[in-house]
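Ticket reopened. Same input as before:
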Amino acid sequence: MDLIVEIIVSLCLVGGGVFGLVGSVGLVKLRGCIQRLHAPTKAATLGVGGVLIASSIHFTYLTGTLSFHQVLIALFILLTAPITANFIAKVYIQANHDRETLPDTTGAHGWAIYDKPPVQ
Amino acid sequence: MLRRLFPHPLLSVTLVLIWFALVNKVTLGHLLLGGFLAIVVPIVTAPYWPGRPRVGRPLKLFGYVLIVLWDIVLANIDVAKIILFRKNEDIRSHWVVVPLELTSPEAITLLAGTITMTPGTISTMLSADAGCILVHTLHTDDPDAVRDTIKSRYEARLKEVFA
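Engineering reply: fixed in the latest deploy. New output:
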């Protein structure tokens, strides 16, 4: 039984590690800020996820009681990662694009960093 | 009476679950303590969050979370494949404009977060009237298909949740 649990935990750790590594490789390899943004927001999520699952299984088995506060870490990563990515993307657009180089909006108003919101 | 005690049942349930996760055990004592927080926090924070959206179908929200979690796993594998096996010259990135039918800020935030976490897309910006969202895709041959997937897979479900 010990062996099986250890194998599962190791698989999760190695899998998580691989995805973390791929995320970092992507940061180096891809071109430009906005492409690089794709690597850490996705590949890294599963990297952290794998480690958290491993941690949960390990401590549940070790202590005999369900250990699930790792869920909380995953939850906060899922909540905060998109916000960070969004801010970086916005700064990138502000520095590298203008109205002409971005596609048009489908509505009557332009993109938020160029146009004021309509008065309500 | 029950409505006045729990003006936002979903927020209360979430608070209890988060409390359990924080203390990492489920006991009657912690249920009482978490329950106390679940009653007090929504009442105290109500003035700071006027016009909270009603989550019409909490169960649909649960289903939505499961779908997104599964898609995050697929997205990771997709992006890993692109990073490892594709030459930089072959990666074709596109801007995609997705018109929105959602109106509540909370629903749009949730959709933007979902887009960022799922297959090869990042949400970058809203239009000034929040009528459409600018999405960057890492690699796609068919930008229109990406837009349609976002609309049918995520936005349609969110519309049901916040209906």
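The helical segments of chain B are 2-5, 9-23, 28-45, 58-85, 105-117, 143-161. The mean pLDDT of chain B is 81. Please confirm and we'll close it.
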